[in-house]
Task: inverse folding
């Protein structure tokens, strides 16, 4: 005679628990991975923007006359060259007193896109003023 075990109402609850845990760990890994990519992208474009602003602000004329100013066209060309060499698109705003660089980048979500999180846009604005002395 074969004895059948009683069916328990808890059957299958362990597999639902495991599925929830796997989903949670996948989301947590996505936050760490994709969040790190966003931070790394921000740091990268901030560095490029700072370098472009610094390079542009070094295009100074009229130093000996005591009225130093930024050569606007040369500063714009120099800053755009730094952006281009770095492979970053940005906007250069130059005047005789300062130069400002605005850079924007989209970062795609690799893991979090599974949970419906789309691309994230990061932007940075850096400015430099020449200091003579």
Result:
């Amino acid at each position: 005679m074969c004895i059948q075990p009683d069916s328990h109402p808890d059957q299958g609850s362990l597999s639902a628990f495991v599925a929830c845990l796997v989903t949670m760990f996948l989301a947590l890994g996505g936050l760490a991975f994709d969040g790190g990519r966003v931070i790394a992208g921000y740091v990268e474009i901030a560095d490029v923007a700072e370098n472009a602003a610094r390079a542009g602000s070094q295009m100074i004329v009229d130093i000996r006359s005591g009225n130093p100013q930024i050569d606007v066209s040369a500063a714009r060309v120099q800053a755009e060259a730094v952006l281009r060499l770095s492979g970053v698109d940005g906007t250069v705003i130059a005047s005789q007193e300062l130069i400002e660089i605005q850079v924007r980048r989209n970062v795609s979500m690799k893991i979090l896109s599974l949970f419906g999180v789309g691309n994230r846009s990061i932007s940075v604005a850096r400015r430099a003023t020449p200091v003579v002395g």
The chain is about 45% helix and 20% strand. The chain has a mean pLDDT of 88.
